Amino acid sequence: MTIIDMSSPRVRVIDLETGGNGPDNVCEIGWQDVVLDENAAWQVTEERGAILINPGRPMSPDTMAVHHILDEQVADAPFWKETAAAVLRPPGRLDALAAHRAAFEQRYCKPRFTGETPWICTWKSALRVWPDLPRFSNQMLRYQRMPAGLVHEIGLPAHRAMPDAYVTAHHLRDLLNQTSLERLLAWSKEPGLLPRVPSGPDRGKGWDRIETSVLAGLARDRDQDIRFSAQTELSQRGESNQRVTVEPPQKSFF
């Protein structure tokens, strides 16, 4: 790990645990910074942490079974609106926020807390940079890629905010060292470009192996990531001038 001047280019990775589906039902926020060092290499720093948040309501057994945070542990914790801005708008330079499947975090990290800081989605970015990998969840990327410098114990337990942010930060570091910050930001504004068909009779095939008539049907799929991926392939074949409307991402098979 490297401690670097906070005036350096910086991206803060965020992970949230929630106690329900309401707009303020966050029960924990974790963060991990990634910065550009003097040798123009992105590094994971020692700046990380987590804060328990009172979600303002009892948590269901379903949610507690995921993160194992108990109601009594958050009873005296601050509320989300009292805590969010301090983490999402830290002192010093901040070029972007990042999260794995960032649309989830963005549901809670509203612009009034972030100050309009742009977001990187490491899931969408991984689809582009490492398309040959079989799966793209945060933890699967961890064990498929085994990122250099990732301390196993710091990344545990999974499904807690700081360990998950720490793992994501190692993916982000490697993504930034393989392509530009600007490109990751641009990809993150679009739907996910899936490397393979995720379901149906052509599941697992690359889009270039799919018949044009089948692609035309997939380009009208309910899932925006499937639509975008099929339309991108059609456009490369000169078969489509359609554009995808960017919506909140749907659940994906990746």
Strand content: 5-15%
Low-confidence parts: 249-253
Overall helicity: 25-40%
Overall pLDDT: 92
Structural class: alpha/beta
Under CATH, the topology of the largest domain can be stated as Nucleotidyltransferase, domain 5
What would CATH call the architecture of the largest domain? 2-Layer Sandwich
What is the C-level CATH assignment of the largest domain?
A: Alpha Beta
- Give me the Rg, rounded: 19 Å
**What is the CATH homology-level superfamily of the largest domain?**
Ribonuclease H-like superfamily/Ribonuclease H
Strand order of the largest sheet: 3-2-1-4-5
**Count of runs of 4 or more consecutive helical residues:** 11
What is the number of beta strands?
5
The global form is: globular
Main sheet properties: 5 strands, mixed
Biased composition (Polar residues): 231-244
InterPro entries: Ribonucl_H, RNaseH-like_sf, RNaseH_sf
Domain Exonuclease: 10-181
Keywords: Hydrolase
Describe this structure in words.
With about 250 residues, the chain is α/β, with parallel strands linked by helices. It has helices at about 60-65, 70-75, 80-90, 100-110, 110-115, 120-130, 140-145, 160-180, 180-190, 210-220, 225-235, and strands spanning about 10-20, 25-35, 40-50, 95-100, 120. It has two domains: about 10-190, Nucleotidyltransferase, domain 5; about 190-254, no CATH class. The protein has eleven helices and five strands, in the order E-E-E-H-H-H-E-H-H-E-H-H-H-H-H-H. A hairpin with a 7-residue loop joins strand 1 (about 10-20) and strand 2. The longest helix has 18 residues, at about 160-180. The radius of gyration is 19 Å and the shape is globular. It is an enzyme of class 3 (hydrolase). InterPro entries: Ribonucl_H, RNaseH-like_sf, RNaseH_sf.
